[in-house]
Amino acid sequence: MTERYEVHEHDVLVIGAGGAGLRAAIEASAQKASVGLVTKSLLGKAHTVMAEGGIAAALAHVDPQDGWETHFQDTMKGGSFLNHWRMAQIHAQEAPDRVRELEEWGALFDRTADGRILQRAFGGHKWKRLAHVGDRTGLEMIRTLQDRGVHMGLEVYMECTVTRLFLDGGRIAGAIAYWRESGKLVVFRAPAVVIATGGVGKAYKVTSNSWEYTADGQALAFEAGAELIDMEFVQFHPTGMVWPPGVMGLLVTEGVRGEGGILRNAKGERFMWKYLPEARRNEYAASEEEARRWLDASVAGKQTDARRPPELSTRDNVSRAIYTEVKEGRGSPHGGAFLDISYLPAERVMKKLPSMYHQFLELADVDITKQPMEVGPTTHYIMGGVRVNPDTAAATVPGLFAAGEAAAGLHGANRLGGNSLSDLVVFGRRAGEAAAAYARGLGGNRPRIAEAEIEAEARDLAAPFERAGGESPYDVHHALQQCMNDLVGIYRTEKELERAIEELAKLKARAAKVRIVGTRIYNPGWHLCRDLRNMILIAEAITRSALLRKESRGAHSRLDYTNPDAALGKVNHCCVRAGETMRVSATPLPEMPAELKRLFEAAPQPVGAKA
Amino acid sequence: MSAAPGTKPAGAAADGAHATEAVLSVFRGDATGGAEVEYKVPVEPGMVVLDAVHWIQAHQAPDLAVRWNCKAAKCGSCSAEVNGKPALMCKSRMDHFPPGKPISVRPMKTFPVIRDLVTDVSWNYEINKRIRPFSPRPGAQWRWQQHDIDRAQEFRKCIECFLCQNVCHVLRTHELKHQFAGPRFFVRIAGLEMHPIDGADRTLDLRDQSGIGLCNITKCCTEVCPEQITITDNAIIPLKERVVDRFYDPVMKLWRMVTGKE
Question: What is this model's ipTM?
Answer without folding.
Answer: 0.93
